[in-house]
Design a protein that fits this description.
By secondary structure, the chain is α/β, with parallel strands linked by helices. It is 39% helix and 12% strand.
Length: 270
């Protein structure tokens, strides 16, 4: 396992500046996405994947993951929205072409939301069919697709996520904080660890998706051990943020990033 940072943790920084922060902190890896000043150009990724990948050369960091949205925001062309499968599959082919050219091993997408007129079961059924098609697209590429179950998605419980995995064989970008803030105990989330191909780290507690390291309930040494014992050997991406979503505006991102880095390094050295 190796640490990474998420570029969107530093909304005022360019991609080059976020990479420099990662190097300065001794991490040397950076997840990339479509947000804030470090955002990649989604239109270029879809139109000319090779050119988009070429622009990442020279950052001087590994890039373990790319976060892709098919539409705009959480609801735009989401996986649970009927009628989106064909266009999303076409887009994913370009996205994975980009990821392979940029040597990005994993691409994470979102599972979808409960759309107007749907029940949670309806959303799960459409998302399941979407993911079956997207897994077929993935088979022709080196990069692995994964979903991040998140607050406000239809997949808000470990049990629902396990059912989706059973139906589709999809892998996870696992973020314990999304479940912890909904009240799930860490031991209830642990069964998802064997299915992770990417991991996000930040402290949380019931009712708070993000909180200061010393004020949350997640036991990170235990989490690291669970992941290791499950055979996980991918990136642990520190994802403290400064954004409106779920009131995650009030922590010092740099301080919390260093706290998490030091926690992992202490555990690793034992």
């Amino acid at each position: 396992m190796k640490l990474s940072l998420t570029a969107w943790s530093f909304p005022s920084c360019t991609l080059e500046e976020a990479a420099a922060i990662s190097k300065a902190l001794g991490i040397g890896a950076l997840d990339v996405g479509l947000f804030y000043r470090s955002a990649l150009d989604k239109h270029e990724i879809l139109a000319d994947p090779a050119a988009a990948a070429e622009k990442l050369v020279g950052l001087g960091v590994e890039i373990p993951n790319y976060y892709h949205l098919f539409g705009e925001g959480l609801a735009g062309r989401n996986l649970a929205l009927p009628g989106t499968i064909d266009q999303n599959a076409r887009d994913l082919e370009q996205v994975l072409t980009f990821a392979d050219a940029a040597r990005i091993p994993t691409v994470f997408i979102l599972p979808g939301v409960v759309n107007p007129g749907q029940s949670r079961a309806d959303a799960m059924a459409v998302s399941t069919e979407s993911l079956k098609t997207l897994k077929q697209v993935e088979s022709g590429f080196g990069a692995t697709i994964c979903i991040e179950p998140h607050v406000h998605s239809w997949a808000e419980s470990p049990g629902l996520v396990l059912k989706l995995i059973e139906a589709t064989d999809i892998r996870l970008a696992l973020d314990y904080s999304h479940f912890a803030c909904l009240g799930y105990r860490q031991e209830e989330i642990d069964p998802l660890a064997p299915y992770a191909v990417h991991v996000h780290l930040r402290q949380a507690r019931m009712g708070a998706l993000q909180t200061k390291f010393a004020e949350g309930t997640l036991n990170f040494p235990a989490m690291f051990g669970t992941l290791r014992d499950a055979g996980y050997n991918g990136a642990l991406s520190i994802e403290n943020v400064h954004q409106d979503y779920m009131n995650t505006l009030y922590e010092d991102v740099l301080t919390e990033t260093v706290e998490m880095r030091d926690c992992y390094n202490r555990w690793k050295e034992t």
